[in-house]
Amino acid sequence: MEIKGLHHVSAITANAKNNYHFYTEILGMRLVKKSVNQDDTSMYHLFYADEVGNPGTDLTFFEIPRAGHTYEGNNSISITSLRVPSDDALNYWIKRFEELDVEHEGISKQFGRSAIHFKDPEGQRLALVSDEKNQGVAGGVPWDKSPVPQDKGIIGLGPSKLTVPSPGPTIQILTEVLGFTHVGDYPAFIDGQPDIQVYSTGQGGTGAEVHLEHRTDLPQEKPGRGSVHHVAFRVDNYDELAEWKDKIKQLRIPNSGLVDRYYFKSLYFREPNGILFELATDGPGFTTDEDVEHLGESVALPPFLEDKRAEIEAKLQPLNTKLY
């Protein structure tokens, strides 16, 4: 039972069309699945990733058209990182962001890696992180039809940063329950605040870290458009996920039980600071119901929703994701 790294991050958008434009045409990610939120089928669930949606490359969005403004604060997943192949790739992205008017903070250092912090049009807090020195979990392969050159493209998820008012209980979950290891620290972005702690799992490296920020000066975050709903961690297979369920149950941690998301199986629980964690299996993957060449072009529904397709599609605003 070993967490292999980041599986996916799920966030909130108020506008699927604009979200699709930014993440595919600006960031060059591939829409590998256009589906719906299985818990509320009136909203889109969009999955952006590498060429085939390999585990650890996946950034997803729930569309909530009436989602309000996010008031940033504690008890949150406050930065989602996206990996790029090299330091040189970051120079490309600086020029691209300048040309396309993307708000960014230039190149800085984060735990010995070069990074660019930036935001999407809804204020989603993001960072591009260089994989040049990575010796841990390998990244994916950018889609060859992306508007971004493959050697500069996004290859997967980097560290997720959690911001909490009380780090001790979160650390206990990360280390004693999930098996993460403390591997270092780096200075906080705000003067006078504690160093940011880095926790690693599996093979380690850019795709297998959680960065924990302790903030004493913030209210609790009020989520909305541009906020993160949950972070998911990789579990090898269903049998191992069932073992995790038993372990978490034995520890009396409230949880969802095993949930079938069709493209993967999941287990959800909240750590003590209220952040939603998911454990998700690596398979069966996004090519289960669509050909690789046509991923994300049509509304994909798991078999248990297929008989409601007409009803579901009638509630969705049309979103053209076909390339040709």
TrEMBL record:
InterPro entries: Extradiol_RC_dioxygenase, Glyas_Bleomycin-R_OHBP_Dase, Glyas_Fos-R_dOase_dom, VOC_core. The keyword Oxidoreductase applies. It comes from the Bacteria. Gene3D superfamilies: 2,3-Dihydroxybiphenyl 1,2-Dioxygenase, domain 1 (3.10.180.10). Pfam families: Glyoxalase (PF00903). Keywords: Dioxygenase, Oxidoreductase. The keyword Acyltransferase does not apply. Residues 5-131, 156-282 form the VOC domain. This is Ring-cleaving dioxygenase. It comes from Aquibacillus halophilus.
